[in-house]
Task: structure prediction
Amino acid sequence: MSKKTFLDFETSIADLEGKIEELRYVQSESAVDISDEIEQLTKKSQQLTKDIYSNLTPWQITKIARHPERPYTLDYVREIFTDFQELHGDRHFADDLSIVGGLARFNGTPCMVMGHQKGRDTKERAARNFGMTRPEGYRKALRLMKTAEKFHLPVFTFVDTPGAYPGIDAEERGQSEAIGRNIFEMAQLEVPIITTIIGEGGSGGALALSVADQVLMLQFCIYSVISPEGCASILWKTSDKASDAADSLAITAHRLKALGLIDKIVNEPVGGAHRDVKQIASQLKRGLNDALRQVSDLKIKELLDRRYERLQSYGRFSDTKIDSAA
Result:
C-alpha cells in the first residue's frame, strides 16, 4: 500500500492515520485482537477529516487542488469513458504531452474527450511539463475539437493547469495566438462542449479549454485569472502573501458559482478526490450526463446563441451614484 501524502493542515489526521497503521501492523503480526481500537480510531479520523474539510480557507483549497495524488484527466477517462483512442500531434510542430485527448464513448455515445495531464513522478512531470501547455498542445486540442465538429460529436474537456507555459520557445511559436484562437473557435464550435475543472484552472491556459455550454467544477478546485502566488508577487512584491491573495481572488467553487462563472459544483469525498477516485468519478459521471442532456437536443443556432449569451454575462458590477455636490 502506497504511503499517503498529507498537507500541512492535515497533520492531526496524519498522526491518527499513523497510529491506525501501527495497530493494523501489530494485529497482523500477533494473535491479539485490537479491531475495536482500530475501528474507534478510524471513526475518530473520519470525523476529524470532516471537521477540517468543512471549514477550509481558499489557500487550503488551493493546496488540495494541487495535491500530487489527485486524479488527473486520464484517471477520469478510464473511470467514466469507454473505448478511448488517444490521438496525437497538432500537425504543425509536435505532440505536446501536457494535453491528452482522443475519441471515446460516454454512456455508449461517441464523443471527443481531452484535458490537461500532469505527471505522477519526476520523469512524467518533466515529459508533461507539469501540466503547462505549449502552443502545439492547444493546437492539438483545437484539431480534436474541429474533428468532433466534423463528425457531430460532443466535446468533453478537463482542466487542470497552473497556466500556459511562459517560456520563450512557447512565445516564439505563438502562445497567445494559440490560446486566443482556441477561445475564438470554441465560442462558435457547432457541437455541445462540457468542461470540468478537476484541479487548477489557471488563467488563459485554462480558458483555452473551457469556453463551454456547461462548466462543472469539483468541490476542492480553483479557477482564477492568476495564481495566488503570482497575484501576491504583483501586489505585495512577495509570494508570502499568497494566502491573502487567495482570499481576495474568489477562486473557489462556491464563490465562482455565486458569480455565475460555473454551472455546477460536484461534491468530492471527505478528504478530497484523491481519497476515493471511483466515488468522485461516479459523481462526476452523473454531473456530466445531466450537463450533456441539457444541451444535446438544442439546435445549432440555439446552442451558439446560448453560448454567446453565457460569455456576455460574465462579470458582475453595480452602479454607484456620485454626489455632484461633494
User: Anything to note?
Assistant: The mean pLDDT is 92. Residues 81 and 106 are 5 Å apart (CA to CA). The beta strands are 82-86, 99-106, 109-116, 155-161, 193-202, 214-218, 222-224, 264-266. The longest helix spans residues 11-29.
